[in-house]
Amino acid sequence: MATSKRRAKSATPEAPTPPSKDELLHYYREMLLIRRFEEKAGQMYGMGLIGGFCHLYIGQEAVVVGMQAAMDSRDSVITSYRDHGHMLACGMESKGVMAELTGRRGGYSKGKGGSMHMFSREKKFYGGHGIVGAQVPIGTGLAFAHKYSKDGGLNACYLGDGAVNQGQVYESFNMAALWKLPVIYVIENNKYAMGTAQARASAGELYLRGSAYGIPGRQVNGMDVLDVKAAADEAVAYVRGGNGPIILEMKTYRYRGHSMSDPAKYRTKEEVNKMRSESDPIDNLKKVLLEQNIADEEALKAIDRDVKQVVTEAAEFATQSPEPDPSELWTDVLVEA
Ligand SMILES: Cc1ncc(C[n+]2csc(CCOP(=O)(O)OP(=O)(O)O)c2C)c(N)n1
Ligand SMILES: [Mg+2]
Hints:
pyruvate, globular, about 325 residues, thiamine pyrophosphate, binds thiamine diphosphate, disordered N terminus, Pyrv_DH_E1_asu_subgrp-y, alpha/beta, THDP-binding
């Protein structure tokens, strides 16, 4: 596959089959679930029910939903601290994720990990990493494990635009290319790394960062779930075909501050409003669903009601589940392989 730049909204002739009506509705529901979950988490943080750091994924939903739609249960996922959307897209339960945010026993890490440290072996979700870029060598190792054990799986290794200048990323690219490891490096370029605009911090195009290792890269409109799905289909086919790693640079945007404690003074309200009103991934798909008569306004509202119910139940669970017992302080420090 040659290195090439994908244009926004372009149809890919080599894409397998276009998504069915049910699949489109599924993407809509999944993106809405992440949006409503994150809105609720933001509210609960404001009420003091969630402590520590909390990084919301609002605006970026199309990336994980489109990627996950192209993958299957053999595949593993790893990402940074902006991880709630990835967990929900992997099929982890909203209740367990929300209860981890509130630091309760019912959480995925029994209330001891919080927002940035959650895992599910069952769903092959390997965190949740607070050190910028730390997940890249680990994701590469997961890809090695997939290849070594011949389980047919691949790793989707997500990293931010703020991680791409780290040495460990290139050490990982080198190994992955050399050993043809089954890994998709998904760069979520949401334009900012904390308060630093991507253009101020990184030279050149991010999708070309694997060129020296012969790793092909694609730039994708990460605000359009259909573009993401089409690019992900190609990437999955390439990687499963034994060709080694590939890079997908998702051009996306986070609507909220870096974390809940960021007033986001490094960008204008107009910039955020423009993205929200013109490029919102959920509105984009809604238009498609309405235009193609796949669903009417009423049906879409019903999906929203369902999703809100799931999130309300998750929030109730997360506030009723007890706090961890102090005796748990010394458990789960080392886990048997
Ligand atoms: C090694 C390291 N350096 C610095 C930090 C502080 N830090 C936390 S998030 C962040 C920005 C990362 O931005 P990006 O990779 O673009 O991800 P995004 O927050 O946009 O999802 C920084 C510098 C850290 N956690 N780890
Ligand atoms: Mg970023």
